[in-house]
Amino acid sequence: MHISFLIHNAYGIGGTIRTTFNLAHALSAHHDVEIVSVLRHRDTPVLGLGPGVRLRHLVDLREDSPTYDGNDPEFARAAKVFPAAEGRFGQYSELTDRRIARHLRHVEADLVVGTRPGLNVHIARQTRRGVVRVGQEHLTLDSHSRALRLALRGVYPRLDALTTVTEADAAAYRRLRLPGVRVEAVPNSVPAPGLAPADATGKWVVAAGRLARVKRYDLLIRAFAEVVAARPDWRLRIYGGGSEKAALRALIDELGLYNHVFLMGPANPLESEWAKGSIAAVSSSLESFGMTIVEAMRCGLPVVATDCPHGPGEIIDDGVDGRLVPVDDPGALAGALLSLINDDAGRRRMGRAALTAAARFDPARIAARYEALFGQLLEEKRANRLRGALHRTRGALLSGAYVTKDAASAALRGVRTV
Amino acid sequence: MNTSTRPPAAGSGRMPASSGADGDPPGLTADCIADSAGGLTFDLAAPPDVRTTWSAALVLRLRGADAEEVRLPLGPNGAGGLRAVLPSTVALAEGRWQVYADLGDGHAPRRLLPGLNDLRSLVDRRPLAGIGRLGVRIPYTTKLGNLALRSWLRGPHAEAGDILVDREGMTVEGRLYGALPGPGAHVEARARRVAGQAATGATATVTVPLTADGAHFSFTLPYAGPVGHWCGGGEPWDLWLVPAEGAPPVRIGRLLDDVADKKQVFAYPAVPVPVAGTEIRVGPYYTLDNDLALRVAGPDTVD
Question: What domains, with CATH codes, occur in chain A?
Fold first, then answer.
């Protein structure tokens, strides 16, 4: 297969970029894979991309580049195709509208895969006939504004498939009713760490993430005060930076935990830091997937996590390879942490179980799931095209959800203004 | 997802960093494994086109010193890469060391990029107290994204542990290496500079007794002493441990873990103290060299 990913900016840093690179790299073992980055502001990608994947851009934002596009008058005019309700709308323009449209009209691939809602809209509306259109949702439907949800519902029926990172989010998209669109949950992948797993001997609990409200590190710190009261020999490290840092620092001081709770600052790569711990903790009120949970498990740590929407409950098997606790309940979080702290054998057993269970997120296994999905979509597309041709020659009415959808999109293509 | 937990660091992860569009050679990255004795093993993911010779070496250069250089043999590691070992027995002067690879191919040594650092054996490092001289090396990533080492070489050494802060003062627990506390053991807080006294060359010193149990020590430093010397601005006080009457003083610091820069991570509350109609703040902190100090800061002082 020839697979073409469309991504906002492959030259930055972020979960979507990392997971797309992992997937593209794994798929490139057996397929022709390219990543098309709408924007480019740097010469080389910050995150490592495997050698088998081609990378190109559509709009050049490097000011010192001979092909710099920032002075194009179209660049200054607001986008018309990229939905206004999308979070990245401000970075899109008439120029991105035109370049993405041209790319999708001529794309050589068998499949195009969008990596965020606004790009999925482009793909649904502008991809040339015969190419399979796949949209990926890396966040969740319910994290989008009502305006964006409406925009997506109007356009997504022209996709062949939509993937989410959790079953819960897939169910939400199915409730949206997108006729003829296959909705599948495929989790993000996490590679095996490049160092030996944690040995569960260190008396450290480790957490990692943006210091943002949604991560509820205030709750974790309060829970850890209860842990310290019972087990003062255990300590907590929180990796990451963010706007909540000063507030968390003040809370640590207020609770007198400055010998037990440490704000470590950002770390890259994180796997070296997980390996220093014996338990991982996640206190979030919302996790669209739960990448850090899988990362910690791949390093052999049992994870104590809040059972928040959407990811943790689909990753952790409560009591087997980690613990799930109610959201917003520091007592329950402390209790679960202490149950692992006070049970060395149980902690080691859960850590080993986590290591085994997390192997299902290996890029090769996730790529195989995408490969199967893409293969089926491609087959269906070819079969439908044949059937469509047959129906047309007989002048018969088209029927069936897929065919109806194809016809609708063909009609829309006829009046396309872009 | 967790964007801000991951600052840019070229060459991280297991996929090699892409080469620049302008034809730069791809960066050479080194994975670093620490052992609990203070030794480090460097594994380089050498690209396949790199040929090395018998004279290949890992080169450590002390920042700020012209000639200070340590060369370690760089040979095959059996996994297709290159390996160099920095044993704990090789003394490295205190400071920041930049890490290069000289592949012996006639080209200038290449600056190494950080790969994976496995420093778990440093996290709760607790050497035998009788150790004569303590060597500590912690790999870290420089602001420009290169691999470097922080090094300390101390004997004796006074390692600070938990610090308890209250309104009256602070109590420090610790462990003494390479010396045993004897009669007359005490701690001296020395003002780094006190306005008005600089001219005479004398600096203010506050002395408090040391309690010891074997290698373990503790002391309480009431803030009243340093506060009494305050005459405006922000005043740092350095803390020294004198193991016995007449013994040379030992700087108190925190070195025995995997954190190269303690200042931001090991942070303590500063308590307000009313002084002569105004309010100053007093609290412990770690210096950029990870030594323990006390700051007495006036209301207008900016950290």
Answer: 2-189+364-414 (3.40.50.2000), 204-361 (3.40.50.2000)
What contacts A102, CB < 8 A, 6 or more positions away? none
* Residue pointed to by tokens 């040339």: A128
Q: Is the pLDDT of residue B191 over 80?
A: yes
Q: What is the spatial distance between Cα A159 and Cα A200, in angstroms, rounded to a whole number?
A: 46
Each residue's pLDDT tens digit, A241-266: 999 999 999 999 999 999 999 999 99
B265 contacts on A by Cβ (under 8 Å) = 262-265
- Token reading at A23: 């997937």
pLDDT band at B58 (very low <50, low <70, confident <90, very high): very high
Chain B residues closer than 8 Å to A292 by CB: 2
Give me the architecture of the B3-154 domain, per CATH.
Sandwich (2.60)
Rg of chain B (C-alpha set):
23
Q: Does B19 touch chain A (CB under 8 A)?
A: yes
Chain A residues touching residue B3 (CB < 8 angstroms): 13-15, 210
The ipTM of this complex is: 0.89
Instruction: Report angle CA A165, A166, A167 to the nearest 5 degrees.
Output: 135
- Cα B205 from Cα B226, distance rounded (Å): 8
Which pTM was predicted? 0.87
Which chain A residues are closer than 8 Å to B163 by Cβ?
258-259
**What residues of chain B, 126 to 165, have a C-beta less than 8 Å from chain A?**
162-165
Are the Cβ atoms of B1 and A240 closer than 8 angstroms? no
Q: Where are the domains of chain B?
A: 3-154, 157-297
Residue type, A408: A
Note whether B303 contacts A: Cβ–Cβ < 8 A: no
Q: Which two tokens stand for residue A173?
A: 């998209």
